[in-house]
Amino acid sequence: MSSLGGISVIFDLDGTLVDSEPNYFEAGRHTLAEHGVPDFGWTDHERYVGISTQETVADWIERYGLRASVEELFAAKNRRYLELARSSTRAYPEMRKFVELLAAEGVPMAVASGSSPEAIEAVLTGTGLDAHLRTVVSADEVPHGKPAPDVFLEAARRLGADPAACVVLEDAAPGAAAAHAAGMRCIALPYVAAQADAPEFATAGLLLRGGQEEFTAQAAYDWLLNSVDPS
What we know:
Number of helices: 9
Strand content: 5-15%
Helix content: 40-55%
Largest sheet: 6 strands, parallel
Shape: globular
Radius of gyration: 17 Å
Distance between the termini: 14 Å
Mean pLDDT: 94
Structural class: alpha/beta
Oligomer: single chain
Strand order of the largest sheet: 3-2-1-4-5-6
C-alpha cells in the first residue's frame, strides 16, 4: 500500500490541472458576440469560473436577454472550446508533477469537472494526463453540478473510495463548497485571487491563497502525508 494509506485524490480540471480558462473565455466571447453581446470581458468571465457550461449559458440567457436556447448556446460554446482545447491547453507543470508523484505511489485518482465529457477527454488527451487519470466524471453525468457534491461523490463511488478518505484539489469557490458538502478534505488554490476570502474556501484543509504560483507538488504531497491517520 502507498505511504499515503487509503487516500484517494480527486482533481477538478479547469484552472486546477490545466490552464483552460483563457480557452473558455475565448469560446464564450465569440459565442456571445454572435448573439449580439460584443463586449463580454475577462471580468465578466470570472463570475463563471467553477460553474458548469450548462449553468453558464442558462445565466447568459437571463443576464443578456438572449433568444437562443440553452442547447443551442451550449453546443456553440462547446464546439468552439473543443477546437481550442485540442490544440492549445497547457497543464500546470507542478500539477503534472503531483499527478506523476501520486501515480508512482499507486494512489487512486479521478477527475471531476463541470466540463462536458468531450471537453474533459480532449484536454486530458491533448496534455497526456490521460496516461494517469482514467477515472473521469462530468457534471453532465450527475443530477447537479458544483456546488452540489454530486460529481465528487460519483468520482469516489467509481474509485471505490470512502468520501471521508478523499482529498479534492479545487480552484473555484463552488468546487470547494462541493468538496465540503461531499465530506471530503480540500486543497484549494483560488484561480481568481480576489476570491481567496470567499467563505467557501475557509472550509479547505489547505488554502493556498496565491493559487498556482504557490502550489508545489512536493508541498502538497507532504501535506497529504502529514494528514494520514497513523492508526
